């Protein structure tokens, strides 16, 4: 029987859209890499379009290379590109809410 230290439990996560998350729980041999986790996860079968594009990858939110070695209970995340630049989105929200609804210009209660 294999020793518990000979295997890793890893999660692969991908969000194809807002409020949607696909998770794959894997058991891999010790010394497995991010690329091996992706290959054995079933991600490319569920989302075949990902095969043809370069992937941005992270382990627990920190950018990772495909050759990075994984540790037990790591979470490999496949990042999708941003649809809107966060700075542009903030400016658009500010315009929509008006200058009185946000930040330093927000209405403050009057002192009595």
Q: Characteristics of this structure?
A:
112 residues, alpha+beta, Ubiquitin-like (UB roll), 5-stranded mixed beta sheet, 5 strands
What would your notes on this structure say?
The chain is of the alpha+beta class. The protein has one domain: Ubiquitin-like (UB roll) (Roll). It contains three helices and five strands; from the N terminus they run ββααβββα. β1 and β2 form a beta hairpin. 13% of the residues are buried.
Strand content: 25-35%
Q: Please give the radius of gyration in angstroms.
A: 21 Å
End-to-end distance, in Å?
Answer: 75 Å
Largest sheet: 5 strands, mixed
Write the layout of secondary structure elements.
Elements: E1 7-17, E2 20-29, H1 34-41, H2 43-46, E3 56-59, E4 62-63, E5 75-79, H3 86-97
Parallel strand pairs: 1-5
Antiparallel strand pairs: 1-2, 3-4, 3-5
Give a short overview.
The protein contains three helices and five strands; from the N terminus they run ββααβββα. It is of the alpha+beta class.
């Amino acid at each position: 029987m294999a020793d518990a230290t000979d295997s890793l439990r890893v999660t692969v996560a991908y969000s194809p859209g807002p409020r949607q998350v696909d998770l794959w729980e894997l058991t891999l041999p010790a010394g497995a890499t991010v690329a091996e986790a992706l290959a054995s996860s079933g991600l490319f079968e569920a989302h075949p379009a990902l095969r043809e594009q370069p992937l941005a990858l992270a382990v627990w939110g920190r950018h990772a290379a495909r050759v990075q070695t994984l540790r037990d209970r790591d979470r490999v995340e496949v990042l999708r590109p941003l649809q809107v630049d966060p700075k542009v989105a903030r400016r658009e929200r500010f315009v929509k809410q008006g200058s009185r609804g946000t930040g330093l210009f927000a209405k403050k209660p009057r002192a009595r």
